[in-house]
Amino acid sequence: MKALFYLLIAFIFGISSCQNSLKNKIIGILPYEEVKQQDIDSVKSTLERTYQLKTVILNQIELPQQAYTTIRSPRYRADSLIRIQARNLPDSISYIIGLTNKDISSTKYNKQTGEIKSPKSTYKDWGIFGLGQVGGVSCVVSTYRLHNNASNQLYFTRLKRISTHEIGHVLGLSHCPTKACVMNDANETIKTIDKSTGELCDECKKDIYLN
Fold this sequence. Notes:
Blueprint: H1 2-19, E1 26-31, H2 37-51, E2 54-57, E3 68-69, E4 75-77, H3 78-87, E5 95-100, E6 104-106, H4 120-123, E7 126-128, E8 130-132, E9 138-142, H5 152-170, H6 190-195, H7 202-207
Parallel strand pairs: 1-2, 1-5, 4-6, 5-9
Antiparallel strand pairs: 3-4, 6-7, 8-9
Helix pairs in contact: 2-5
């Protein structure tokens, strides 16, 4: 009986600890050269509302040349950017989201084989909207591809949704099968993002204890 009591206490304590895991965490927005203040403010307000975490704006810096590539076209490797950001994470910041208006890319792999997706010439350096380190501390979002056939309002809607999506990965969320959820996989098209509600589904909220 006593063992059962202690097991129950440990279970309750474990739930409480998980629910408080995001308490006092801070998101830092790292704007790279020439990002507009309106874009930065839009991302800040969206992340604060969605994740209920304090979000601060860091000093604007130049894009690191270590991430620059010309494999297919002049742009920056998103995987390199998030690694560099993680290494240079300020002590006061828990998670970091880089924000750039330059094109970014990553390599896409076949989930079954682990090899570069075919055709390799296309997917070795594939242009993307954003990239997040699942369960890590770093992600990056590019506005470069968000203007395509977009009004000013649609552009900001896309920016908010992608930023919410990438920070969701950092907080531990994987891609969600619920199509309306902001964590649904974009599947290489902006149309998926446009169809999203921009909100986390109930299951994703539960996963990070926002519900």
